[in-house]
Hints:
- This protein is mostly helical.
- It has helices spanning 7-32, 37-44, 48-55, 60-92, 103-112, 119-135, 143-158, 175-180; strands at residues 116-117, 166-167.
- The protein has a domain at 8-89.
- It has a two-stranded antiparallel sheet with strand order 1-2.
- Belongs to the AzlC family.
Amino acid sequence: MGGGGSGIAAMSAATLLGMRNGIYGMQLNALLRPTGWRKYVGAQLTIDESTATSTGQADPAEQRRGFWAAGIGIYVLWNLFTAVGALAGAGLGDPRQWGLDGAAVAAFLALLWPRLKGREPVAIAVVCAVATVIAVPFVPAGVPILVAAVVAAVIGWFSHGRSDEGLEPDVDPYREHHRHDGGHGGRHDGGHHGTVPGAGA
């Protein structure tokens, strides 16, 4: 809002972020199965980076290591450099001269792009990026990301891509649960016939 965005845009973006983190939490809870104090600490470390690092691994031990390493590392460094900025910010000059406004975008691209598999997911990502860039000069701050979310939702609603295209690797957090329920790892995917690739493997 300090950059000129409206209250509605801020609340909408915050709602999307909350929904996203809720989905992250459900996925990671099923994938890592934390117990005791780890469940409560892990909830505080559930962010984009820790989720992407964890779900990007196929080995369960590496999934746990990736989550805790990314979550704790970002928590410590984020707060450390926030303190540095607060204490020495005047000496750093204008942050825009350092190009830091593009650091977050670069980080998200680094997390997402290597995991895209197939032409349709790549095309959707490119279309959403173009829609965001086009919207920036015409709408208040915070609204372009909402435009991208709407574009992705519309494409996803009307799209009928192949079931084996999406994010790579394809990790099924409920794989062990399916095994215990009779050894059948496949599950139906949104009404389409077939099973999710990699499930029950």
